[in-house]
Specification:
four-stranded antiparallel sheet; alpha+beta; Structural Genomics Hypothetical 15.5 Kd Protein In mrcA-pckA Intergenic Region, Chain A; 3 domains; Pseudouridine synthase; globular
């Protein structure tokens, strides 16, 4: 799989159009418990923590039709209504971006896509016009309303993580898929090359939140949101392992943060790599440098996705092989094994078993 194509000429910028002052956004809590109300609002609405806290303090936020404190912890079933001031409740008309997409499944309710690395999932500051959502609009796909600026998006992948994700075409499908995600009924399996060796399968349970010194990064911190990842070694190479990582929660950068937290960061990760090949000494350092040179990005791929169809309840299961751009890294990790350069290295290594 190659990186996303470049649009010949990006569409011209469109000005923001404010919604009427007093527009109300309603959120439903689908997980067993959340962090503080102000953090929940900041995360769900894409607001700064300060602005979220101000909305709560000004009485613009109701939980189950009653005022609440910013420190309140939410629980499954809670309804949060936010009266958005006109200056905040803005939206952009989503401009179409003519970029090819790999659609592995589509019906009247949803699509399953195989996202290339380098493609941002939804519009956000710095990426308003060249995202997966823009490409879906250009394709003429009807999308659920979703969160503000995130139509159709049930779950996300990092920009430089490739692989499978599901997109909802209408609100009922979105609600049912989001509920299944919150109840951990959507199976998400990732293939990752991680530095060092893990002796046996393990569960990493460590809360994740914004890094206290660098807001662009995430970190394991006591005040973070609960996060759980199941990690299993699939193949052992000289300086790294191929891992199968299954998500029980879906925090920002979760796999990358959790693997770094246990001392086995993702190969090629520019943010959480922990020194990469510099961690190695002696003969291993030469092998590690060769692997790092062969990895054009973080070696992380959403390879498996399975869930019950939101309308028919039929079980859907999808697989995505190791992407072509990371092929040289896997071959380098395996010491040049020609079988790893074939079309189905994950299947060869037993990843999907």
């Amino acid at each position: 799989m190659s990186g996303p194509p470049r649009a010949p000429t990006p569409p011209s910028s469109r000005p923001d159009s404010p919604e009427p002052t007093g527009a109300v956004r309603t959120l439903s809590v689908l997980t067993a418990a959340t962090e503080r109300l102000d953090r929940f609002l900041a995360d769900q609405l894409g607001l700064s923590r300060t602005l979220a806290a101000r909305l709560v303090a000004e009485g613009a936020v109701l939980v189950n039709d009653a005022p609440a404190r910013a420190s309140r912890t939410l629980a499954r079933g809670d309804r949060v209504a936010v009266t958005m001031p006109g200056a905040v409740a803005t939206h952009r008309e989503i401009a179409p971006w003519d970029a090819p997409l790999v659609v592995v499944y589509e019906d009247d309710d949803l699509l399953v896509l195989d996202k290339p690395a380098g493609m941002v999932v939804h519009p956000a500051p710095g990426h308003w016009q060249t995202t997966l959502v823009n490409a879906l609009v250009a394709r003429g796909v009807t999308l659920s309303s979703g969160e503000r600026g995130r139509p159709g998006i049930v779950h996300r992948l990092d920009r430089d993580t490739s692989g499978l994700l599901v997109v909802a075409k209408h609100d009922e499908a979105h609600r049912r898929l989001a509920r299944a995600l919150g109840l951990r009924r959507i199976e998400r399996g990732y293939a990752a090359l991680a530095w060092g060796h893990i002796e046996a399968a393990r569960t990493v349970e460590a809360p994740i939140g914004r890094h206290p010194q660098d807001r662009k990064r995430m970190a394991v911190i006591a005040s973070g949101r609960a996060a759980r990842s199941h990690v299993e070694p699939v193949a052992r190479f000289a300086v790294c392992d191929l891992l199968r990582v299954r998500l029980a929660t879906g925090r920002t950068h979760q796999i990358r943060v959790h693997l770094a937290h246990i001392g086995h960061p993702v190969v090629g990760d520019p943010v959480y790599g922990g020194g990469g090949s510099r961690r190695m000494t002696g003969a291993s350092a030469v092998t590690a440098r060769g692997l790092e040179t062969a990895a054009p990005r973080q070696a992380l791929h959403a390879a498996h996705l399975a869930f019950a169809h939101p309308r028919t309840r039929a079980w859907l299961e999808f697989r995505s092989e190791w992407p072509a751009d990371l092929g040289p890294a896997l071959t380098a990790a395996g010491g040049g094994d020609s079988a790893l350069a074939g079309p189905s290295p994950l299947d060869y290594l037993g990843f999907f078993k």
